[in-house]
């Protein structure tokens, strides 16, 4: 091993491509999509679907790096997560709300990847390479259970007569829940992954994820949330009333053991996806900082890098501090996904990257609005939109606080019981 | 590609440095600070680890390619033990590395080997000036061409081991650009004042140096660009800040896991646990930024100098935040000199000023 920061060629190429997408398909409609909540940018969705199909990427869902045939002589270093993080950063730079409705499975597929059997992966994930753009979503949060995922109340009961699971419960904050579940002639049939307990007395050990196909009877999208930012992304509330799901749609073991593998499945999903969410935060932060520097340059303000602090103007100090935040946050993302690619346990680095990205993207977008004054506050520019979009980074996929808790437990060697 | 693990040789060096930091520097740090002196034996032992030699090419008496990354890893691990001791061990590099980076072939041959191949000797450098707006790229100390050589005038501060140094590199403003000049001891016009009295680093002998019409031959000018030298000083500064911060984090963490309040360990309180989580996150962020800057320097990347500036600036803020919080977590115990964290906080405050005290 070595310490190295050279961006791999394939990633450079991907990013170059996605920069074009961001410039031509995202930024021009960014404002319109924000002003007309839940409008669907079909052009972008179809373009991304076609593009991903043709490159064989198929999906933006994280997946394991391919194992080398001869591990002693790897031909290429594994970079699947690194590529993905780099791509998401670029898409989020374009528009983070639109990134969230990129077809290809998202968190739903990520859950299947993390907790599904090889057969399940084959069965559920093939659809993303189909004719039409297709979505999948993750249903975890409930009205009374956010970060405390062990408090979810949705239930799954096995009907032995039909060998089906009967799901009941109420799920909220389901990103892309509408596109994944409600049929749309322009989209393929997706699915949602519903977390429920198969034994309410078993706590975390009873938690399982179930793949629920689009249109399953008993499941209804009851509401689309109106949000501070990422308005183009549909955030759904979903009710499940006696919804029936085939037996083999449970991810992981169908019986309750004394272990907490079900819950660990959920947490493994988060270890994989937190740095990816962090990557999108970095993308938004970079968008804001680059725009700020461009606007300042137009006003004749250049930042004099290299000067001692005492000689810098307040704006120069702010810009330099933001540069430091941005670059270091991105490196934390890279390290976390590099660890994932190399099969190193990354719970600590994953949560750290999320803490950092949530912090810096909120700080940077706030500061950019502040520095540009009335122009920052104006809807003529995208700065105020990015400030609103940014805040979600510190909330979803585990708030900054829950991630601090994860980091603290890791560095202190404490269990959840020792540090609540 | 991206990769975040030191190579085998680097890891061996880190392990050796860590043993020294833990077994020698840390136990000696407080006594050295209070008595305002470092045992010569301690410095010698650190020097024998061969950190500078590992980064000095063979023709000049070392056994490795110059590597800022390796230097950063070693400085980080060593500063964990004690900052003043680490700076003392690293001081001869302040003289040899700028020659390696900006000197002529003759200068390299003349100066570097006798230093790196021998026991620790006092060779040092004078960059910092006693002014609030001190700027390494806009020095008040001047160099003027005169005859075959130069005349230096100005005042320098915080020059390590100036009194005993065999020679110094003095940085001066030559026609608007910063240049290094080799100034041997006893050069007429070079005067070393009494030791500086500072908030910390009392164990390290730091002096004010005055240059009054100091005549230097042409052959003592380091003709190369100052920018890579400054960048190497900046990543060194960042690396040292990382080591100090890491030491403070670990100390505060261990204390918080022992200290009982309201029936639990204080580390079990989120107020404390979150502080520790944020400290660790901030350290990790700046460590990666510093590694990248050092890697960029080694790889000759375009933005390497700017990255080094950002790493140094960010690490200086980080170490202040981390050491301040370490004191806070120890509460009253953080404030008394029986515990080391107040000393580390004093060290932490200095990193906005320390650029020029070390180089990797």
Describe what you observe in this structure.
The complex is a heterodimer of chains A (420) and B (360). With 420 residues, chain A is α+β, with helices and mostly antiparallel strands. Chain A has 12 helices and 9 strands. In chain A, the strands form 2 sheets. Chain A has a 4-stranded mixed β-sheet. In chain A, strands 3-4-8-7 form a 4-stranded antiparallel β-sheet. In chain A, helix 7 runs antiparallel to helix 11 and helix 9 runs antiparallel to helix 11. Chain A is globular and about 75 Å long. In chain B, strands 2-5-6-9 form a 4-stranded mixed β-sheet, with helices on one face. Chain B contains 11 helices and 11 strands. Chain B has 3 domains: 109 residues, Butyryl-Coa Dehydrogenase, subunit A, domain 1 (Orthogonal Bundle); 99 residues, Butyryl-CoA Dehydrogenase, subunit A, domain 2; 127 residues, Butyryl-CoA Dehydrogenase, subunit A, domain 3 (Up-down Bundle), CATH 1.20.140. The mean pLDDT of chain B is 97. Classes of the chains: A alpha+beta (420), B alpha+beta (360).
């Amino acid at each position: 091993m070595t310490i190295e920061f050279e961006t791999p060629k394939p990633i450079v190429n991907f990013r170059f491509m996605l920069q074009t997408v961001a410039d031509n398909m995202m930024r021009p409609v960014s404002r319109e999509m924000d002003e007309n909540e839940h409008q669907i940018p079909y052009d972008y969705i179809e373009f991304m679907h076609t593009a991903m199909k043709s490159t064989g990427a198929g999906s933006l869902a994280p997946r394991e790096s391919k194992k080398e045939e001869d591990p002693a002589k790897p031909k290429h270093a594994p970079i699947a997560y690194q590529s993905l993080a780099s791509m998401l950063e670029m898409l989020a730079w374009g528009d983070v709300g639109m990134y969230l409705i990129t077809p290809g499975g998202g968190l739903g597929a990520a859950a299947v990847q993390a907790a599904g059997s090889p057969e399940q992966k084959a069965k559920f994930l093939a659809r993303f390479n189909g004719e039409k753009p297709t979505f999948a979503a993750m249903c975890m949060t409930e009205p009374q259970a956010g970060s405390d995922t062990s408090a979810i109340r949705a239930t799954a009961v096995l009907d032995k007569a039909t060998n089906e699971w009967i799901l009941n419960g109420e799920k909220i904050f389901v990103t892309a829940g509408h596109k994944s579940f409600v049929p749309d002639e322009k989209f393929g049939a997706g699915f949602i992954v519903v977390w429920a307990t198969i034994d309410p007395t078993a706590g975390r050990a009873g938690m399982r994820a179930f793949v629920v196909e689009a249109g399953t009877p008993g499941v209804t999208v009851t509401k689309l949330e109106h949000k501070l930012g990422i308005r183009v992304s549909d955030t759904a509330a979903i009710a499940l009333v006696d919804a029936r799901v085939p037996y083999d749609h449970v991810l992981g073991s169908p019986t309750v053991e004394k272990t907490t593998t079900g819950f660990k499945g959920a947490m493994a999903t988060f270890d994989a996806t937190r740095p990816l969410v962090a990557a999108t935060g970095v993308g938004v932060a970079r968008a804001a900082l680059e725009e700020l520097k461009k606007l300042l340059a137009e006003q004749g303000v250049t930042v004099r890098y290299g000067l001692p602090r005492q000689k810098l103007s307040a704006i120069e100090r702010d810009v330099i501090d933001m540069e430091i935040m941005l670059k270091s946050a991105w490196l934390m993302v890279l390290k976390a996904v590099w660890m994932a690619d190399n099969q190193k346990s990354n719970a600590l680095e994953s949560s750290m990257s999320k803490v950092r990205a949530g912090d810096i993207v909120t700080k940077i977008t706030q500061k950019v609005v502040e520095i540009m004054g009335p122009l920052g506050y104006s809807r003529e520019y995208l700065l105020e939109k990015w400030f609103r979009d940014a805040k979600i980074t510190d909330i979803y996929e585990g708030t900054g606080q829950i991630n601090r808790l994860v980091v603290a437990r890791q560095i202190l060697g404490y269990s959840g019981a020792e540090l609540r | 590609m991206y990769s975040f693990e030191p190579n085998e040789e680097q890891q061996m060096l880190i392990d050796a440095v860590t043993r020294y930091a833990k077994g020698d520097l840390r136990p000696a740090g407080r006594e050295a600070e209070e008595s305002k002196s470092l045992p010569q034996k301690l410095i010698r032992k650190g020097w024998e680890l061969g950190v500078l030699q590992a980064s000095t090419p063979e023709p000049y008496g070392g056994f490795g390619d110059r590597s800022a990354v390796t230097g950063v890893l070693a400085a980080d691990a060593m500063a964990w033990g004690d900052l003043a001791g680490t700076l003392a061990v690293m001081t001869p590099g302040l003289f040899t590395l700028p020659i390696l980076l900006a000197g002529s072939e003759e200068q390299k041959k003349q100066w570097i080997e006798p230093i790196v191949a021998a026991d620790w000797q006092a060779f040092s450098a004078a960059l910092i000036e006693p002014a609030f707006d001190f700027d390494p790229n806009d020095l008040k100390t001047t160099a003027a061409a005169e005859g075959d050589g130069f005349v230096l005038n100005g005042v320098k501060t915080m020059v390590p081991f100036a009194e005993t140094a065999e020679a110094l590199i003095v940085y001066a403003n030559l026609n608007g650009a910063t240049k290094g000049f080799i100034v041997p001891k006893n050069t007429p016009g070079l005067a070393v004042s009494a030791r500086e009295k500072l908030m910390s680093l009392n164990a390290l002998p730091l002096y004010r140096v005055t240059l009054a019409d100091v005549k230097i031959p042409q052959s003592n000018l380091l003709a190369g660009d100052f920018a890579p030298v400054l960048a190497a000083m900046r990543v060194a500064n960042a690396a040292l800040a990382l080591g100090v911060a890491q030491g403070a984090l670990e100390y505060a963490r261990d204390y918080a896991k022992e200290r009982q309040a309201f029936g639990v360990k204080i580390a079990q309180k989120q107020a404390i646990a979150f502080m520790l989580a944020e400290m660790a996150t901030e350290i990790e962020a700046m460590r990666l930024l510093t590694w990248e800057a050092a890697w960029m320097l080694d790889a000759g990347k375009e933005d390497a100098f700017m990255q080094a500036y950002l790493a140094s600036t960010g690490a200086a803020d980080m170490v202040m935040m981390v050491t301040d919080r370490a004191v806070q977590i120890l509460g009253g115990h953080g404030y008394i000199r029986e515990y080391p964290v107040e000393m580390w906080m004093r060290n932490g405050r200095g990193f906005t000023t320390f650029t020029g005290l070390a180089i990797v």
